[in-house]
């Protein structure tokens, strides 16, 4: 009986040692992988670094809401202002970022690495280049501001401002038409109806982007469709 007890003790002790070694090995692997992802920052010299993040757009929770339109705003002006205020570059990328779904499917099937983001869920890519503390502060501010645009509310302050801006743009454009060409709805509130929400997803915002790298997805205030148009022009 004593012999069996000793054997059981030896086996149990051996099993515990194996489990302990296995756990330690798993922790070491996890730690090494985590360390590989982390880069050492030199904050004493304030050497500029690039910081980039991807922000998920909640389209799965709210599939009928036009987040792309709200993020870009009329003629892309909302995203222009976001970039100016936060000093970050932003781009709406991923599945559903292009208005032309057929073209999106073609680009996704093309195998071109420039459009690999189309396999990902819809997201906003935010990036900046500055001294470490400043760069992370900019990203933090950008995250807080972008979050306001990801609220699926048709009547919040952002949407109301975009409606007034759209009305002003429409009224300004109508001045170029003669009375017989003037549409009774141009510049009116009916042209701003949120039921026709895709009106907020406008044409390319006209920002100067000659220096953009085709392989760099952190484009300046562009949706992926606008990015594709820019690449075709080059």
From TrEMBL:
<dbReference type="InterPro" id="IPR004087">
    <property type="entry name" value="KH_dom"/>
</dbReference>
<dbReference type="InterPro" id="IPR045071">
    <property type="entry name" value="BBP-like"/>
</dbReference>
<dbReference type="Pfam" id="PF22675">
    <property type="entry name" value="KH-I_KHDC4-BBP"/>
</dbReference>
<feature type="region of interest" description="Disordered">
    <location>
        <begin position="174"/>
        <end position="234"/>
    </location>
</feature>
<keyword id="KW-0694">RNA-binding</keyword>
<protein>
    <submittedName>
        <fullName>KH domain-containing, RNA-binding, signal transduction-associated protein 2</fullName>
    </submittedName>
</protein>
<dbReference type="InterPro" id="IPR036612">
    <property type="entry name" value="KH_dom_type_1_sf"/>
</dbReference>
<feature type="domain" description="K Homology">
    <location>
        <begin position="49"/>
        <end position="147"/>
    </location>
</feature>
<dbReference type="GO" id="GO:0003729">
    <property type="term" value="F:mRNA binding"/>
</dbReference>
<dbReference type="GO" id="GO:0000381">
    <property type="term" value="P:regulation of alternative mRNA splicing, via spliceosome"/>
</dbReference>
<dbReference type="InterPro" id="IPR055256">
    <property type="entry name" value="KH_1_KHDC4/BBP-like"/>
</dbReference>
<dbReference type="GO" id="GO:0005634">
    <property type="term" value="C:nucleus"/>
</dbReference>
